[in-house]
Amino acid sequence: MNRCGVPRTLLSPVVALGLLFLPSLAAAQDLASFEKRITVKALDNGLTFVVCERPEAPVFSFFTYAAVGSAQEVSGITGIAHMFEHMAFKGTDVIGTNNYAEEARALERVEQMYTAYQAERQRQPKPDPARVAEAEKAWKDAIEAAGKYVVSNEFGDIVQRAGGVGLNAFTSADNTGYFYSLPSNRLELWAYLESERFLRPVFREFYKERDVVKEERRLGESEPIGRLIEQFGATAFTAHPYHHPTIGWMSDLDSFSATDARKFYDTYYAPSNMTVTVVGDVKASEVLQLAEKYFGRLPRKPAPAPLRTVEPPQNAEKEVRLHEEAQPLYAEGYHKPSAFDPDEAVYAAISDILSNGRVSRLYRSLVRDKKIAAFAGGFPGYPGTKYPNLFIFFAVPTPGHSGEEVRDAIRAEIVRLKTEDVTDEELRMVKTRAKANLIRGLGDNEGLAFGLGSAQGLHGDWRELFREVDRIDKVTKADVRRIANATFTDSNRTVGMIITKG
Fold first, then answer.
1. What confidence tens digit (pLDDT) does each residue in 284-315 have?
2. Which CATH architecture has domain 48-97+150-297?
3. Is 313-500 the same fold as 48-97+150-297?
4. Which residues, including other chains, have CB under 8 Å from residue 247's CB and lie 6 or more apart?
5. What φ, ψ does residue 339 adopt, rounded to 5°?
6. Minimal CA–CA distance to 273: which of 57, 489, 47?
């Protein structure tokens, strides 16, 4: 996404200062120096550990990367990857319960009653309202009975009492991530907790949590930009599961069950589909010993089948127009290859040239000079990067200006990319910023754990975090023109607009 830059008047001294210190910083944080501190080991069950020794402070951070997201969902269970993320905080058969033997029986009854309720609700040709109400009551009574055995938030409370901070997770189109930080003397507690929630997760309070997710979706639907993004993605992708939202369609959120979530977990949370990265004041030998002891308990499972569906080439421009009593917005997206493509670095360079701060082309043209947009940018990787995705341009028109005006200005900048070489200074700054951004990302345990874990999980090698900068450094002017001409074509374009009415 677009990043706020510094004013032009401050650019030269700031850049000069950065360039002065960049060589010494890079020397301390280059690939060779990290290779001395990083240990990688695959356990017998297939789970990969990446450990980076960084003893600056007596703390450590971790990032668990599960190579599963909404792209692995099918019609009927959209949103279920996100639901399991929520379930991973609900505890196990010993955490979060006051009597698991009784709770397990109560949860089994919840599923039985939910199955009966769904059968009545979906009965053809027409459900009987009385029978539906009766089945729904029996299901909700079963939920209430199961709730008596729940110790709420016990997993998070244990982490907090041990000094943990930043307990959180996310679900994207490509992967699900879990992370927090702890004092170094709590390493074994972390190994137990993090392995336990994937070894013996309990799907307690599933339907209560499903209601929370449904409310998240309703909040998104209430915003015009949320409605536009959802329809834009569904229009841009015809076949590939990138077309459905990570939060899920409401009808699926109303229908899928804890049993469905369990099946999804059993399929995609195979150890071979997961990477755990630990960064901080730790010894690799101790981490790996604890990894064997705790994470080695996770049973080996077959690797999930690769995704079969490939998005067909787009051969006609598509458009989504929302007429709303809201601020106008304009976006257009172009299909591009996945992160594994040799030209991925070129797309990153184009994004930087167009969008990185107040010296970027879109900012100078639309915001500073023409004053027709309050904000403008362009970025690749929507909604994910693992599979072919979109490069998106966007702008928020200023009062009195329209989506058509910012559209024409954006396309004028695209034509410039196609017909004129970028300047030597632009390309030099792209490469300088790429190196500086890498160094900043390596500056704290959390960022480093995320970067190393994401690179290892996606590419199978944490070194890709550094090689990406090397590939950007090799981008040429001719590469920028070649990719712009190949990608930004009319027939490859999907347009999304919010048009102000009233």
1. 999 999 999 999 999 999 999 999 999 999 99
2. 2-Layer Sandwich (3.30)
3. yes
4. 79, 82, 213, 216, 217, 220
5. -65, -15
6. 47
